[in-house]
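USER: My hope is that you can spare some time for a protein that puzzles me. I am handing you a single protein, as its sequence and its fold in token form. Walk me, if you will, through where the backbone shape changes along the chain. The protein I mean follows directly.
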Amino acid sequence: MRNAFINTVLDACAQRDDIFIISGDAGLGVFDDFKERYPQRFLNLGVAEQNMTGFAAGLAMTGFKVVVYNIIPFLLYRCYEQVRNDICYQELPVILVGIGSGVTYAPMGMSHYAVEDIGIASTLPNLQVLSPCDPVEARCAANHALAASQPVYVRLAKRGEPDLHPGKIEDIALPQVLRAGGQVALLCHGSITEEVLKAHAMLVAEGCCPLLVSVPMVQPLPVEQLRNLLGGMRAVVVVEEHYRQCGLGAAVAAQLSLACPIIKLGLPERFIHEIRDTAGMRSQFGLDAGSIVQAVMQCR
């Protein structure tokens, strides 16, 4: 997913001379070709993330389309004030590319996890938030961000995620139906979608066929389109590798005013002390396919 996004940006550089990439001493190797081809449009500003964000804002004010690349805690958490004041307040079209969504970086520990970033981003006016589920959505997210006139934050995993869409999609701002169905709807975003698809296949084998929808545009939420998709559902189950109280599930509950129950499968509001790989973390917190199946079956 990460490479699909970055390669789309790099391809655009052949047609555009305004794209400038800044790295915070991350993505070593990812930009080697870009640095050779466009040495005047790349900077590694090192472990000085707040300076990096202010520098990006300054470049954007001179007309560059700036792409800032870093691990999410060093992109959004450490630099919250600079993202807020320098980029979002001035509504500068900077692309914030955050790597390591959810518990992608397991078992490196809570300092590297990004399980509250959507909640943090939701406090920032003017900031769009995209959470692609696969390389197909990542490419579409890159094109959307490159064309945007406002700041865009894109959260990406980097574990070699497979294509989940059968073909190209046109509008990343819309909910994406991955599997048709009824009675119960499954909503998800990010790399956990692969696990949700496994659960969907298990449910179909049991005679249950829920609607499965990826919601890559987390902020602003596509409220009307979601209402149209979810109208008449018996229940909605939201699955995300994020804190339950401030992620997609919380936004759906607050903004859609659905008549049916909304079940939020995510991480509890506490620091993660457990040390496991990503699959182990998902199992620990009830985000594996089997747990998702149980949650849906209880809604029937």
About this structure: Residues 2-156 form a domain with the Rossmann fold fold (CATH 3.40.50.970). The CA atoms of residues 54 and 86 lie 6 Å apart. The longest strand covers residues 235-243. The chain has two domains: 2-156, 176-297.
